[in-house]
Amino acid sequence: MIISVASGKGGTGKTTVATNLALSMDRTVQFLDCDVEEPNAHIFLKPQIEQRKSVGIPVPEVNEEKCTHCGKCQEICAFNAIAVIKNKVLIFPELCHGCGGCSLLCPEKAIREVDKEIGIIQIGKVGPIEFINGKLNVGEAMSPPLIRTVKKSIANGKIAIIDAPPGTSCPVIESIKNSDFCILVTESTPFGLNDLILAVEVVKKLEIPFGVIINRFDIGDDKVDLYCKENEIPILMLIPFDMEIASLYSRGIPMVQEKKEYTTKFLDMFKLIENLRQQKAKEK
Ligand code: SF4
Ligand code: SF4
């Protein structure tokens, strides 16, 4: 089962939920940090990294001797990553999505693909948790191919917990698609509600069963709660504002390590997710 943890905006406690859920599980789980622009789950899980692998995408390289400057490659590129100017072909690797279209359609076979590193994946272990994260190179914009590489580690029959990037853009969709369930973490503020509504639209479009965790539920208003009730969205857990949790977070200590009652809460939430999934499967 693949459970992704997402949030419409940053700073809601998404990584806190993902890491503490993984640490609470009573069986082997895979943890995938797909927040590749700013991976930070390792700070809390402290895995022993055993492997590092470079991840690249194929970008075009033009053989000027073969090129007739016909302009076909520029026409086909939907990302403006290749431009034919007078007698020169310019390539902008940072815009290239590595789709291979230009090399396929070049009539002179003047384009070959060369690998360009966009980041790395790291694979490690901590207790029964198999840890995988992706780290995008600084200044690199192409996170979806790296996220896809991280997700290739998902093994059939295991529970995989995905820490998705914040927001509702392409990297989030790449991270959560094909999940069996998505946990949306929000907070009880007007911003929290606004971004939750956007995130709900995304998971509904992707037809992923989902539920909501309201973090710091006791210091905002009740609009998130009302929105969930009106829209029959299950509330999976309420986490109060707690200085001790905030202090543990600031020191990179998972809350379940010091506040043992949360282990049971996260495990109960996992059972609830299993039930909700079964219900959804029956409804289909
Ligand atoms: S399609 Fe091929 S031949 Fe035409 S401009 Fe591009 S690289 Fe040159
Ligand atoms: S590989 Fe695709 S994205 Fe990259 S330059 Fe060629 S057509 Fe554009």
UniProtKB/TrEMBL annotation:
Keywords: Iron, Iron-sulfur, Metal-binding. Pfam families: CbiA, Fer4. One of its GO terms (molecular function) is metal ion binding. Residues 58-87, 88-116 form the 4Fe-4S ferredoxin-type domain. It comes from the Bacteria. This is (4Fe-4S)-binding protein.
